[in-house]
Amino acid sequence: MRALVKRRPESGLWMEEVAAGVVGPNDVMIRVRAASICGTDLHIWDWNDWASRTVPLPLVVGHEFEGVITVLGAEVNGLAVGSRVAVEGHVTCGHCRNCRAGRRHLCRNAVGIGVQRDGAFAEYVVVPAANVYVMPPDLPEGLGSCLDPLGNAVHSALSFDLVGEDVLVTGAGPIGLMAAAVARFVGARHVVVTDVNSYRLELARRMGATLAVDPTASSLGEVLERLGMAEGFDIGLEMSGSPAAVHWMLDAMNHGGRVALLGIPDREIPVDFDRVIFRGLTLKGIYGREMFETWYRMGVMLQGGLDITPVITHRFPAARFEEAFAVVRSGQCAKVVLDWGPE
Ligand code: NAD
Ligand code: ZN
Questions:
Q1: Could you list the residue range(s) of the whole structural domain that residue 141 is in?
Q2: Are the beta carbons of 168 and 196 closer than 8 angstroms?
Q3: pLDDT in tens, 195-250
């Protein structure tokens, strides 16, 4: 099969002919239809410190995808050949305390599809049947490749009760954009999105943000005044990983505010904990998606009218992957999807 492979410990990804994976008794094989590019894939392409510590070579990359089941392992129940599916990318151990308690998103031994085992930038991928999510019918074609990052957004946003609250989202990358849409969908009042990228601020408006602002051009005071807000935000969703955004967020929170931290900083962020302590803030780290509560909740919201389609801004046939990665690097995009056929 054709696959996008990290072959050598240097910058690059290479389209190669490789053997498809072997289907174990508890696995399924999936014919990949659409796969979207994530920041993690850029790190693997670049072969930064994190990638060189984490990724075994050679590796088929890619973890955000949808496809159709083509083979069922001998022990698999409850799934069918031909079903349209998306896949939870964290393969959990099943024997640590959190796994045994049903909190699989907190597994301490999780292995990432397309990061530590072969992934989905390929015609076929083999995954544990337990990771498969059968998609609700009638979702637009390709949208399944956005369910992994939508799950990050939903996990973050639904960590807190947003009904009637004022929500600040820092970072209008694909995840921040979808989090803004989710916050509006579940009944937040004002949803303010910040980013330094004007293309993405425009998308934030399309996704339902009350206000989309560049924090280097507008002060917090101006934002609060424009919205008639006296005190500050109740809920913060940090989705940039930027130290400046974290500081903006902590300044913007009302006393008793609750903050979900999803963005991954590339360095240590100095934090004045006085602001956290005296304002009585709650900070919650978010990793991945809750298995599988997040998946059920996002499926129901999508069926109930949550519209995330504007987040797919570009599609390329897989063979044009170099152009697709260049668009992701430009930042003039949200989700960029690779189509894997069948042609
Ligand atoms: P992205 O990198 O596309 O988006 C981040 C956005 O933050 C960019 O649009 C950037 O312009 C913006 N930004 C930069 N400086 C800013 C500032 N000062 N104020 C406001 N915005 C600023 O990323 P994404 O794919 O949407 O992911 C969001 C973040 O979540 C990334 O940091 C990513 O690494 C992380 N992530 C975490 C998990 C998890 O499980 N915790 C999973 C996936 C991604
Ligand atoms: Zn575990």
A1: 2-150+290-339
A2: no
A3: 999 999 999 999 999 999 999 999 999 999 999 999 999 999 999 999 999 999 99
